[in-house]
Amino acid sequence: MKSRSVARSLICFVLLIGQFLLLPLSALALTIGEERNIGERLLFSVRRELPILDDPDISQYINTLGREVLETAGPQYFDYRFFIVHNDQFNAFAAPGGLVFFYTGLIETMRSEDELVSVLAHEIGHVDSRHIAQRLEKGGKVGAASLILAIAGLAIGVPGLSQGLLAGSLAAGQAVKLQYSRTDEEEADRLAFEWMRQMRRDPAAMEDMLRTMRRITRYRVGADTPQYLLTHPNPEARLSYVQSLLELDEKRHQEGYYLQTDNFAFLRFKYRVLMQVMDHARLRQHCAFTLANSKDREQQALAQYGLALLEGANRNVDQALRHLAKVREQYPNKDILEIDRAVLLLNAGRVEEARRLLEWAYRRDPTDMYGVYHLARVEQMRGNLIRAEQLLQEMTRVMPEYAQLYFDLGRIEADRGRMSVSHFYLGKYNFYLGREKVAEQYMLRASKDESVPEKLRAEALDILEKLKELSGGR
Fold it and tell me: Where are the beta strands (DSSP E) in 231-343?
């Protein structure tokens, strides 16, 4: 056992030194601009084929974590965006242009924020190293349309995907060439490991996540291999490599260097995700089991949070509030729980109580888009359309791709009797849902209607041009 450990450490040492001796990469098959364009077209395809959890709270959490990693990683070629895809596949994928997708089936297996950060950092490592561009260089030039289909096959890779998206033998062949190599995986793991160390997050979470992947690989023998393990092969080899990095990590001997992660935000995020994707009876059983058997106070408290969400969904608002109050007792400084309370009250029709809480939350933190969105909902219900519009427009500057914003702005304009402007916003709503034909119809109408403000007509023309580009000029 000792000789194996020494050998592993020696291999790891050589690899760590080797990263400083790498020669510059030869010219890649894709330029930065081409990668951005491919990423945009891929996102359009994903939106058309799969439901993205378009929730301001969920989106804000995952993008905040992403920015935390990126601040450590340093300057990047791309503006990164992080998405949660509603699908039970065990999958995550980093696409060209800085798009990172997490599938809900993967999130369900995670137990801590550090595990989520480890996968997130690994995917950023692939983008940072431009591994797909390198794969293409080795595989030769292909047409843009075939390339997008190939990458979509990797990113989506689910039985429910329409056959049209993966049609063509060239696309299928290229998808095989785009599989990450063992060298790619080691480089992404090495980057993720170092970034986690700099963030003072324990990189042992990488080992925990890879153990989960290895277990799933063994469990799924004879069944369809999860897409993540097709594109990110050899979890056994990756686990051995990361264990070698851990053995060499001198920070592990510095007591207190790695910070104890507060998993409140992660567990809250996870329960909010599970509420949208898991059978509610099964989720209730999970919460009850955790309360009865877990000795971890954090896990117990957030199981109460899960029950609050379930009772809220069943319109049992008083019971939901009681569960939430128990969570608040353990986390008196987590003000986001007051927004959760306001949402429960709002959904129960107790608008004025919700308004007071949301105004309080807005004064404390006007950058929390979850609270801002529900305050806008309140103002719409109260008929205060000017304030509601101001709040929604505030959100468009922070979360410009959140589709529901434009639906709500469209409703406000319709309530004002400005149907032409309403059509513009409904066009944007459908555009961000990947419904190109409906979006095109609304935008054509808005671009030609002189009652629509000139700025919006110009934007409608820009979106029409974008639709043409994204659909490959069809």
Answer: none
